[in-house]
């Protein structure tokens, strides 16, 4: 039951990333997005994935962590791409 509940938690968090990616692709703007927030979420998914590996607990939930990690990575890449187009990325990262 614990694995199932964890899966629901990861899916609940993960639903926002494809929506965010589609919104960015449609608007070609990252106005209002926080790169720091996305990077912290990305790090959290890295820790969650590492936890599964270290505990030898690679079940179906592990693949939801990987999917979310991929989505957050793509969202960060889109952020970098569209921020670079506006010339504001270096100022925000400092």
**Helix vs. strand class:** mainly alpha
Strand content: under 5%
Q: How many strand elements? A: 0
- Weakly predicted, low-confidence segments: none
- What's the tally of helices? 5
Q: What value does the average pLDDT take?
A: 89
What's the N-to-C terminus distance? Answer: 44 Å
The largest pleated sheet is described as: none
Order of helices and strands: HHHHH
Helix content: over 70%
Shape category? elongated
Q: What is the multimeric organization of the chains shown?
A: single chain
Radius of gyration: 15 Å
Descriptive terms for the model:
single chain, 94 residues, mainly alpha, 5 helices, 82% helix, elongated
Question: Can you give a write-up of this model?
Answer:
The protein is mainly α and 94 residues long. The chain is built from five helices and no strands. Helix 1 packs parallel to helix 4 (60-86) and helix 2 (16-27) packs parallel to helix 4 (60-86). It is elongated and about 45 Å long. The mean pLDDT is 89.
